[in-house]
Amino acid sequence: MIYFDNSATTKIEKTVLDTYNAASLNYFGNPSSLHKLGLKAYELLETSRKQIAELMGFKPYEVVFTSGGTEGNNWIIKGTAFKKREFGKHIITTSIEHPSVMNSMHQLEELGYEVTYLPVDKTGHVSADDLKNAIRDDTILVSTMAVNNEIGSIQPIHEMARVLDDYPNISYHVDGTQAIGKNIEDQFIDPRVDFYTFSGHKFHAPRGIGFIYMKAGKQLEPLMAGGGQEKNLRSGTENTPAIAAMARALRLLKQDEAKKANKMTKLKTELIEHIQSLPNTHVFSKLSDDFAPHIICFTIDGVRGETVVHTFEDRDIYISTTSACSSKKGLESSTLKAMSTPEKVATSAVRVSLDENNTEAEMKEFIKNLDEVHDHFQILN
Ligand code: PMP
After folding, report:
1. List of domains in the chain
2. Per the residue annotation, which of 134, 325, 331, 345 is the catalytic one?
């Protein structure tokens, strides 16, 4: 079996699962309970928060736990919009965001907010100049992803942050879900950013757990009303075992991060160079520094993406159409559309997404299978 669908989700690490199980059995108290079992769970929660903050270069009180990327994005976008509605109702985002951002924006539009969707160039990057030109007196929030989940383009976060230096009242949110642990933190961690979204299952933690960064002094309207957990920001009994497991997963992820990223880059290079040698193909992901090391989006021209996915599946190889979130719904790729890719080409797109555990042998095997699949479809065409 070759699993090359790590941007959809990653397999939980055995030691991370061990942490989850041990925490579930030994730290099962409710962190809000007054007795010693509650205190024990509370201590585990806060130790995990401290570890995550340290690994990310944040302060512990800037880390708030969520259920994952979708919740983080919904909360930061709507929580900011609601908090700042008296100052303005204009928001800027990009035309290549994840559905959790896009659909949050659409919901806000129905509530009377105005949203500007920045275009992208042919390589899937937004421009800081376009951001500057879109800013208005009533702009309250800018939300841009760090790494695009469909093609892997890294957005110019620092350039946009420098534009926003001149507008201190505008909140800046970056969706870092696909960017964490890929040795590209220097390209998207910026002191001007007020909020980041992260999700555990993209780095071998369990599903349904994540965290946001909320810069000290910033505010968000809570979306979950209840018992006031997470400093009254996000009510609901904390998922202590998953949080402890996520801290463990992040610790593992950060070990030898550069080495792991180099390994993925090597595999990505091998694959891209090989696809480029095949006729009737197109590669959207580039080998330049403004692309992440783990995502390769390409086409076998004239063959629908889902046909390619299932052909590989028959060979026990798992890849996806451009994003798992839209593939089952048969939605066309919003990123490729925003890049002005002709529909006929976009419907052929598939995504290979690597993790640090993928090997040279797997890539060789994948390439061998790709040659056969490609040959097969050339004959049929
Ligand atoms: N943002 C991006 C860029 C993503 O790739 C994803 C996951 N596909 C999400 C947000 C949503 O994360 P989650 O699955 O944890 O809700």
Report:
1. 2-9+257-380 (3.90.1150.10), 14-254 (3.40.640.10)
2. 325
Residue 33 tokens read as: 């309970």
Q: Hey, is 186 helix, strand or coil?
A: helix
Ligand 1 atom at shortest distance from the alpha carbon of 67? 15
Q: Is 144 in the pocket of ligand 1 (CB under 6 A)?
A: no
What's the 103 CA to ligand 1 centre distance in angstroms? 13
ipTM above 0.95, yes or no: yes
- Average pLDDT, stretch 345-374? 97
Cβ contacts of 255 within 8 Å, gap of 6 or more: none
How many angstroms is it from 82 CA to the middle of ligand 1? 22
Give dist(CA 33, CA 381) in Å, integer.
66
Residues 120-150: pLDDT tens digits?
A: 999 999 999 999 999 999 999 999 999 999 9
- Ligand 1, atom nearest to 149 Cα: 5
Q: Rounded distance, CA 182 to CA 200, Å?
A: 14
pLDDT at 360 over 90: yes
Q: Is 325 a catalytic residue?
A: yes
